[in-house]
Amino acid sequence: MRVPMIAGNWKMNTTVAEAVELVNEMRKGLDEIKGVEKVVCPPFVSLAAIKELIKGSSIKLGAQNLYFEEKGAYTGEVSPLMLAGLCEFVIIGHSERRQYFGETDEIVNKKIKAALKAGLKPILCIGERLEENEAGKTAEVVTGQLKSSLAGTDYPSGFIIAYEPVWAIGTGKAATGKQANETIGLIRRNISEMYGEQAAQDVRILYGGSVTAANTAEFMQQSEIDGALVGGASLRANEFLSIVRQTAEIRK
Q1: Which single residue of 90, 97, 196, 250 has CA 20 to 30 Å from 108?
Q2: Mean pLDDT lowest for which of 36-45, 65-74, 152-161, 191-200?
Q3: Does the pTM of the predicted model rise above 0.90?
């Protein structure tokens, strides 16, 4: 039985003080909810403060990105070694990184390998653009991203995949539960081909893209979906708590 995960990607939002305030608002409520793994992914500048704040709680910590080199003349970048003592998870390959910063599958693959070497658990994001979806290329694009991003890796324990259709991220237009479930089922079949059926049954695959408290139940009722990577809704304590609480109720 895969334990569902709800991860909050705060993106480029919250000062350190605001991040601390947000976690303080959620901590007690999140600790009361059992049966769901809860992860928050604040900006780099808040990781150290949040790490201290969540000690002794059930909340886990993730970063939003990393660079694939361990150190060097890469001004402004954050290496896996810098994150290894701070957090457990790291988001890699988010569509915003691909779209705005030119990250290719090859770069994502290097980041995956660097994260694994440092003992971090990647949350690999894959998903198609609107024009690809409308052209019926979802399976082709998602399969290609998955295989390229994981090329040359053994199946890593604790690895997470997030299916995030680009057309649904921050747009308010989520995929339907049925659409998401079908694509995540495809991803799971690909994992089986790559790493074996046991790996396919073990891996947790999340849905991301305009997830809110209002549509959480639709996704969590689907057999292939193991949780959600939540964007804007994770910045509102009560809404994030509702998403986690609904997940726990549906999956108990």
Answers
A1: 196
A2: 152-161
A3: yes
